[in-house]
Design goal:
Oligomer: single chain
CATH superfamily: Vaccinia Virus protein VP39
Helix content: 25-40%
Number of helices: 7
Strand order of the largest sheet: 5-4-3-6-7-9-8
Shape: globular
Order of helices and strands: EEHEHEHEHEHEHEHE
Length: about 220
């Protein structure tokens, strides 16, 4: 629950939170040291990984952008534990975990105009029509993030859902704040862009679903 400008905001959170794993005292101690804090991002290039799952995407971004701070956002407990252990084992120092709904991060006024890139790997497509309103990428979301993105900052989204792909393109096409960069079809291919083999990408291969990669830029 967050109170902002005298209005109570309660963002609904869909999908899994609890997992099968349990936090050890060591996990909790280390995680607390790596949780989001505004002081940790001062004078840094900030990249968001929204919905990091089991952490493969965050580790990929951490290696790709070694001089940037990666804010990894997810609420799924097993994924948080897994990523936290990887950070500890590999002595990674450029990942911060935000274990709440991503929209809460965008209510923090002290990060406005600081974000250089947003990556969203395989967001839940909520395929049933009655659940489409639960999708992360919608008009409200892209309008909200606009205030936190630097000029010319980039947004990357991957999905293996053709219906969600069309919805995402439609949403961005109706906004005056963004350009679609990779319009050429062969540049949509996930494998062509040498992106990480996340759990959900592997699942798409098993189910013989094509994975798409979209690149947008803030004007």
């Amino acid at each position: 629950m967050l109170y902002l400008e005298n209005q109570k905001i309660n963002y609904k959170l869909y999908g899994r939170r609890k997992g099968r794993k349990s936090f050890s005292s060591k996990d909790i101690s280390f995680l607390n040291k790596n949780l989001f804090c505004s002081e940790k991002i001062k004078n840094k290039k900030i990249i968001l990984d929204i919905g990091f799952g089991y952490g493969e995407s965050t580790l990929y971004l951490s290696s790709k952008y070694k001089n940037s701070i990666i804010i990894a956002i997810d609420v799924y407990k097993d994924g948080i534990i897994n990523l936290s252990k990887k950070i500890r084992e590999n002595k990674i120092n450029n990942i911060i975990i935000f274990n709440q709904n991503a929209l809460f991060l965008f209510d923090k006024k002290n990060i406005k105009k600081l974000i250089s890139e947003i990556w969203i790997f395989f967001p839940d497509p909520w395929s049933k029509k009655k659940h489409n309103k639960r999708r992360l990428v919608n008009k409200y979301f892209i309008n909200k993030i606009n205030f936190f993105l630097k000029k010319d900052s980039k947004i990357y989204i991957t999905t293996d859902s053709r219906d969600y792909l069309i919805s995402i393109l439609d949403t961005f096409s109706k906004s005056k704040h963004y350009l679609w960069i990779n319009e050429i079809p062969y540049k949509w291919d996930y494998a062509f862009n040498k992106l990480p083999d996340t759990k959900y990408y592997k699942k798409s291969l098993i189910n013989k679903r094509k994975s798409f990669f979209l690149h947008f830029q803030k004007i």
